[in-house]
Specification:
43% of the residues lie in helices and 7% in strands. It is α/β, with parallel strands linked by helices. The chain has two domains: 23-228, Rossmann fold (3-Layer(aba) Sandwich), CATH 3.40.50.1110; 243-312. α4 (109-124) links the parallel β3 (92-96) and β4 (130-133). The longest helix is centred in the middle third of the chain and has 25 residues, at 146-170. The chain is globular.
Length: 312
């Protein structure tokens, strides 16, 4: 199946073949740098793959560094969020905003709440199933002293409250990783005061994986316990990371201007023998079988782990 996303690109159109056609679900991640980092770390998807017993749900990261509820700038002609969600066949969305917005202090809460609710409503026109993830707290390990961290987390608590109000109004599950006054329900540390350490990434993923993102309210799966250790689980995570790197290169091409921006008429953007042929979009489609092979690798490793667990 080939669908042109906005009439110019065969490239992004092939995303439809990677979405809803042959899998039961696609979870889209929408947020800023923390969800980008979560996708790069691979723990979240690894734990869901292990938990869901072969259902085949896929994760697609649509997050972007610097994104907020107010602005999500993209290169010229990059498809809108609604187009991306449709193209990947998203069946559920995990959204996280609020940490960077909280730097505006108490005075910015109302504007944040209104903008976030509008964004969620727009997303739900395409994908009704949305789960909200609260921001994580600011922490030590960076340039902020303890007093500054505490002050920032007091403001952030106001934004967490706003997220919870939105969840109540729109009947959405809110997964709280901020915890009680900035004390998450798992071991917590940061690299620079903002980004979680690797250990905290793993702990956050294990906590989120307790919730069913496919359920209308993200119901808690209380009987599930993540077993994060072992070389086989780590090998599965490495396969997830490898797959996510392919997705990143495919969905965020290095030279977008030549692909669909303002340089599509440049000589180097077209075949030197036939100017009507654009080689770059065709070349991008070579990522499709690579991504499919990477998905198969993840599925095979997960199946082997489940079989090993049964045999033991």
């Amino acid at each position: 199946m080939r669908v042109l996303v906005f009439g110019l690109l065969g490239w992004l159109g092939v995303l439809s073949a990677l979405g809803a056609e042959r899998v039961p679900g696609v979870v889209a991640l929408i947020g800023g740098s923390q969800l980008v980092a979560a996708s790069e770390a691979g723990y979240l998807e690894t734990y869901y793959v292990l938990r869901e017993q072969g259902k085949g749900t896929r994760f697609r990261n649509l997050s972007w560094e610097g994104d907020t509820v107010f602005a999500r700038p993209r290169p010229l002609n990059y498809p809108g969020l609604d187009q991306q969600l449709k193209s990947i066949g998203a069946t559920a969305v995990l959204m996280q905003f609020g940490q960077m917005e909280s730097l505006a202090g108490a005075a910015g809460v109302e504007e944040f709440e209104n903008a976030y609710e509008t964004l969620i409503q727009d997303v739900r026109k395409v994908v009704p199933q949305v789960v909200l993830l609260t921001p994580t707290p600011f922490g030590g390990g960076g340039p902020l002293d303890a007093a500054a961290v505490a002050a920032r987390n007091r403001n952030l608590r106001l934004y967490i409250n706003a997220v919870e109000r939105i969840g109540t109004r729109q009947d959405l599950r809110v997964i709280n990783v901020f915890g009680n006054q900035g004390e998450p329900p798992f071991p917590w540390s940061t690299e620079d005061g903002v980004q979680p350490t690797a250990d905290s990434q793993r702990a956050i993923a294990a906590w989120i994986a307790l919730f069913d993102l496919a359920d209308r309210r993200g119901a808690l799966v209380a009987e599930y316990t993540v077993q994060p250790g072992g070389k086989d689980v780590e090998a599965l995570r490495e396969a997830v990371i490898a797959k996510n790197k392919i997705w990143f290169r495919y969905s965020r091409p290095t030279n977008w201007a030549f692909l669909a921006g303002d340089r599509t008429e440049q000589a180097s953007s077209r075949d030197h023998r036939d100017r009507s042929i654009r080689w770059f979009p065709q070349e991008m489609e070579e990522f499709v079988p690579l991504l499919q092979a990477a998905e198969s690798e993840v599925a095979q490793r997960a199946a082997a782990l489940r079989q090993k667990s049964i045999s033991q």
